[in-house]
Amino acid sequence: MSTYLPEPFRIKMVEPLKMTTREERLQYIKEAKYNLFGLKSDGVYIDMLTDSGTNAMSDAQWSRMMLADESYAGARSYHRLIEVCSDIFAYDYFQPVHQGRAAEKIVYPLLLKKGQVSISNMHFDTTRGHVGLAGARPVDCVVAEARDTENFYPFKGNMDTVRLEALIEEYGVAQVGVIVMTITNNSAGGQPVSMANLKEVYAIAQKHKIPLVIDAARFAENAFFIKEREEGYGDKSIKEIVREMFSYGDAFTMSAKKDAIINMGGLIGIKNSAEFYEQVKGLTVPYEGFVSYGGLSGRDLEAMAQGLLEGIDEDFLAYYLGQSRYLGELLQKAGVPFQYPTGGHAIFLDAARILPHIPYYEFPGQSLAVALYTEGGVRGCDIGSYMLDPDPETGEQPQSEMEFTRLCIPRRVYTKSHLEYVAKVIVEVYKKSEEFGGYRIVKAPKVLRHFTAELEPVK
Q1: Is 124 a known active-site residue?
Q2: What is the pLDDT of residues 143-166, one digit of tens each?
Q3: Is position 125 annotated as part of the catalytic site?
Q4: Which residue among the candidates 98, 105, 123, 450 is catalytic per the annotation?
Q5: What is the pLDDT of residue 231?
Q6: Of residues 30, 72, 113, 443, which has the active-site annotation?
């Protein structure tokens, strides 16, 4: 087993945690209608629902917040953020927004028309939702290796480029409004995309004159995986790798609540189109606020600028990705199925293999997430069929390519002993997995239902 890397920081402030009883948790999850998003955080011991906005900021980030300029227009905090973004991503235009889905709300209606398709290595939930809200249809095109959760492949997040070409021919170039590359590929298990694959997909997009948008929520982790695994990048800096990655795209949307290590914020980046930037600004003002704050305070802008710099620090990335690897090795030793190798930000338990008696339409990923909470106070979430909204035309429940239960690791929050506790809970649940049943949805919105749906156990 690999050594757990010491934290590249020391702790100067703590937040108390309280363990609840199993009886209390059974009542809490029932009151939440068996939706993990409906739980009160005070009833959660280890919160691995998401790594989005749940990270611990550094002393430098808090210090920068005290220096923030809260001017409505033209604040120096905005200009500092733009300078940092220009240095890291080497794009021409940047627009701050309040989070990643706000970026998608602005960008995708500008690129997609009703009846078109968006092709991605895999759309994540909010991207999928905003593609649908634009009247288009999301089509996933990940490599087959992503579905093999047992064996090692270095870049399971890649786009299947042969199928991509076939899909473009099948739908017709005019019907493909955008190609989306999600890095890392969250729905595939936080798996990275290789530089070679990015380059090949971008060449296909350029050949057909289809815009390529990068979903950049976890760009820094993807860059670190490239440095580790792809020939020719071992001696390059993370920033050098990031710059090349983004050269193979026309624009990006980003939830900065992940790799920028902040609690709120997002970004839109545009490489060389002043016309597209003007369109983005035109929607930012009514949706988010004036262009130089984009729905954020000056404090948020300063924290984002500093967090982007800290998020590409190689020592931090080695430690952070090492946390998921350590947890994965504990599970591997106990024989628990998960997406192997581990992704950057989370462990993705293979719920289909852990709960083979639960069909996809009774949501094994959700069932496993509920079990982990009731048995040990660990909150995760489904990344599987439950996350997929019904087909808008037929109303049928789609079947996900993978049925995962995701356990995210917030940055700079939990320690080695916390992860060992989580592993213990997972192993205990795995040993009695046949005791857990499926769930049915009794109430849900039409779009992004998994956030607020109400469920009940299948009897």
Answers
A1: yes
A2: 999 999 999 999 999 999 999 999
A3: yes
A4: 450
A5: 97
A6: 72
Number of domains in the chain: 2
pLDDT category at 389 given cuts 50, 70, 90 is confident
Catalytic residue (choose from 34, 91, 93, 124) = 124
Please identify which residue in the block is written with the tokens 């069909």: 359
CATH of the domain at 389: 3.90.1150.10
Three-state secondary structure call for residue 373: helix
Tell me if 379 is assigned to some domain: yes
| Residue 270 φ/ψ, nearest 5 degrees | -130, 130
Is 215 among the catalytic positions? Answer: yes
Partners of residue 269 on adjacent β-strands: 94, 252
The total of other beta-carbon atoms located within 10 Å of residue 295's CB is: 18
Query: Distance between CA atoms of 70 and 301, rounded to whole angstroms?
Result: 10
CA distance 276 to 241: 26
Specify whether 360 is catalytic: no
Which is catalytic among the residues 51, 140, 160, 215? 215
Identify the domain boundary among 269, 294, 311: 311
Contact assessment for residue 407 and residue 346, using Cβ atoms and an 8 Å cutoff: yes
Q: Which of 98, 130, 257, 258 is catalytic?
A: 258
Q: Which domain holds residue 328?
A: 22-51+313-457
| 69 and 113 assigned to the same domain | yes
Confidence of residue 459 (pLDDT cuts 50, 70, 90): confident
Is 12 within a domain?
A: no
- Write down the mean pLDDT value for the chain: 95
> Which whole number is the average pLDDT over 414-436?
97
Find the CATH number of the domain harbouring 144: 3.40.640.10
Say whether both 31 and 83 belong to one domain.
no
- Selecting among 103, 146, 217, 220, the annotated active-site residue is 217
Known active-site residue 205? no
**Cα separation values, 33 from 42, 168, 181, 242, Å:** 17, 42, 34, 42
160 is catalytic: no
* CA dist., res. 413 & res. 213, Å (int): 31
217 among known catalytic residues:
yes
Taking a C-beta distance cutoff of 8 angstroms, is the pair 425, 375 a contact? yes
Q: Rounded to 10 degrees, what is the CA torsion of 262, 265, 269, 274?
A: -150
Residue type at position 457: P
Query: Judging by DSSP bridges, how do beta strands 137-140 and 117-120 pair with one another?
Result: parallel
**pTM exceeding 0.90:** yes
Strands (E) in 172-293, as ranges, are 176-182, 212-215, 251-255, 266-270
Please indicate, yes or no, whether residues 261 and 332 belong to a single structural domain of this protein: no
**Of 294, 311, 328, the domain-final residue:** 311
